[in-house]
């Protein structure tokens, strides 16, 4: 089974990204042949600074390696290093309708928010995403629920290509992570933890210092009442229970039982401690990995060579 996913080179990954996406990537290395790509070309569909994009690509690569993505057990590379992605994008354009692209929610949202140029690249973003996956004939795409429409489109594109030109591409399945999608902003527990649009104080970053984590968790919004239990009227506490359950790897019921007679303050201190312990090794490894850009570059280049061998065979077909 072949797994493919792409990750945006935004340097600041948060706890929701870590639990929902990054740990899934790491686990994928044991489930099948895993291929992961930092999508620097997708990042050029909105205004960007080249030097800044280069830095963020390294930041993102270092976070993934610190999280124990292992280049010996997966193929890990930078999209822009493999020209087959853009070549396949163009070929797939012939089986993609303008109307479909024009209905993409993410395009409409980003185009609406764009103050400068709404680029043609932003419009074609989903076709490049389809090419990313289809070039490797991947079976499974682990990516968040927000990508549902893009995955449906890539399945349609693959099916249409096969129907028109003969069986060439694999129609991939969407695999939505079970946890992590529900990690909520600590200040606004009704909305998902997010890099864009979330509250700074309510977002725990993977690279946050222990002091910052403690401060954010202690000032997390809690609910009326004083019991550490989940419930529809307790979104703040429910979120913290879920976080602690994931971080410690125990069921949520066990957390509720353990803190049955605890106060909110005591519970929050335990949550802060657990998150700190969970992220500290990643932050430490990150510092060492990020400091050696030559090694990062060599890792990404070696990954691109392996990726290219697969993608080139698909293009040849
Ligand atoms: N669009 C995806 C996101 O914003 C990133 C992405 C690009 C991707 N290419 C991909 C995800 C291929 C899965 C497969 O998260």
Describe this structure in words.
The protein is mainly alpha-helical. Helix content is 56%, strand content 7%. It is built from 13 helices and five strands. It has helices spanning 15-31, 40-43, 50-66, 84-93, 98-102, 105-113, 120-134, 148-165, 210-218, 235-248, 252-258, 264-291, 293-316; strands at 2-7, 33-38, 74-78, 140-142, 173-175. The strands form two sheets. The chain has a three-stranded parallel sheet with strand order 1-2-3, with helices on both faces. A two-stranded parallel sheet has the order 4-5. Helix 4 (84-93) runs parallel beside helix 13 (293-316). The mean pLDDT is 95. It binds tryptophan (TRP). The site of tryptophan (TRP) has 13 residues, from strand 1 and helix 7.
Bound molecules: tryptophan
Residue share in helix? 55-70%
What strand line-up does the widest sheet have? 1-2-3
Averaged pLDDT: 95
Terminal Cα span: 20 Å
Low-confidence stretches: none
Q: Write down the overall geometry.
A: globular
Structural class based on helices, strands and sheet pairing: mainly alpha
The number of helices is 13
Instruction: Provide the succession of SSEs.
Output: EHEHHEHHHHEHEHHHHH
How many beta-strand runs? 5
Strand content: 5-15%
Tell me the radius of gyration: 21 Å
For the largest beta-sheet, the strand count, sense and barrel status come to: 3 strands, parallel
């Amino acid at each position: 089974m072949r797994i493919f996913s792409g990750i945006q080179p935004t340097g600041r990954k948060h706890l929701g990204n870590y639990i929902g996406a990054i740990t899934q990537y790491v686990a994928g290395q044991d489930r099948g042949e895993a291929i992961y790509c930092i999508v620097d070309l997708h990042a050029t569909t909105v205004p960007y600074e080249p030097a800044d994009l280069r830095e963020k690509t390294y930041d993102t690569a270092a976070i993934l390696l610190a999280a124990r993505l292992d280049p010996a057990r997966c193929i890990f590379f930078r999209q822009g290093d493999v020209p087959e992605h853009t070549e396949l994008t163009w070929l797939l354009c012939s089986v993609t309708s303008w109307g479909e692209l024009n209905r993409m929610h993410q395009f409409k949202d980003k185009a609406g928010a764009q103050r400068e140029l709404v680029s043609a690249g932003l419009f074609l973003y989903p076709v490049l995403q389809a090419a990313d996956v289809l070039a490797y004939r991947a079976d499974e795409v682990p990516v968040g629920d927000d990508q549902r429409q893009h995955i449906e489109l890539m399945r349609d594109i693959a099916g249409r290509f096969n129907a028109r030109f003969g069986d060439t591409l694999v129609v991939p399945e969407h695999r939505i992570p079970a946890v992590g999608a529900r990690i909520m902003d600590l200040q606004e527990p009704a909305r998902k933890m997010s890099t864009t649009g979330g509250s700074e104080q309510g977002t725990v970053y993977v690279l946050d210092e222990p002091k910052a984590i403690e401060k954010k968790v202690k000032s997390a919004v809690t609910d009326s009442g004083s019991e550490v239990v989940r419930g529809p009227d307790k979104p703040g506490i429910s979120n913290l229970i879920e976080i602690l359950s994931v971080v410690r790897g125990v069921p949520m019921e066990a957390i509720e039982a353990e803190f049955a007679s605890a106060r909110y303050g005591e519970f929050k201190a335990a949550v802060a401690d657990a998150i700190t312990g969970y992220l500290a090794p990643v932050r430490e490894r990150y510092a060492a990995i990020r400091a050696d850009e030559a090694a990062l570059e060599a890792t990404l280049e070696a990954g691109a060579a392996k990726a290219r061998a697969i993608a080139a065979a698909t293009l040849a077909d």
